[in-house]
Design goal:
The chain has 164 residues and is of the alpha+beta class. Helix content is 39%, strand content 34%.
Length: 164
């Protein structure tokens, strides 16, 4: 075999191996990013369910652990009749008497996530069931940050509505 043909054949094989390596590297990175995204969405969903349940059960310590109040934290609530409340964020982790622990449960659905490293926002629908059977419907947007490796709520916007 001619030496030039051999060199050309060898260079082609090296080039093909490089393409395979790059493709494998991209697939591996993509898989790892997807796995982290799934891990974060699961952790955030679990946090939202816990936050909802601890509010209703009156477990102040567990509820406060779901939050990390920041100077820029904000909690807005619009009611079905058109009123709007700007809730003092501290009241979520240290509520006035009678505001928490009224029982019931909530069902969240239709989650939509935007996660960027240590910051996330999530929208979801919620149906709250009071102990007396009354249902309350809301669309919610939750703002989160990863603090010391754990997702924490830093703000939210709740929009109550009457279903048609």
């Amino acid at each position: 075999m001619d030496i030039n043909k051999y060199k050309k054949l060898t260079l082609n094989k090296i080039f093909e191996m490089k393409k395979i390596f790059v493709a494998f590297f991209i697939i591996t990175i993509s898989f790892n990013a997807g796995a982290q995204q799934l891990k974060d969405t699961t952790a955030i969903k679990n946090l939202l369910v816990k936050e909802s349940a601890t509010w209703r059960s009156g477990d102040l310590k567990a509820h406060a652990a779901c939050w990390h109040i920041q100077p820029y934290s904000r909690i807005l609530v619009s009611t079905a009749d058109g009123s709007c409340y700007d809730v003092v964020p501290e009241n979520v982790v240290n509520p006035p008497g009678g505001k928490m622990g009224n029982g019931g449960f909530a069902v969240q659905s239709n989650y939509k996530f935007s996660i960027n490293k240590n910051y996330a926002w999530v929208s979801h629908d919620e149906i709250s069931f009071a102990d007396d059977g009354i249902k309350t419907y809301s669309y919610e947007i939750r703002l989160l940050e990863k603090i010391k490796g754990q997702w924490k709520l830093v703000g939210q916007s709740i929009h109550l509505y009457r279903p048609k």
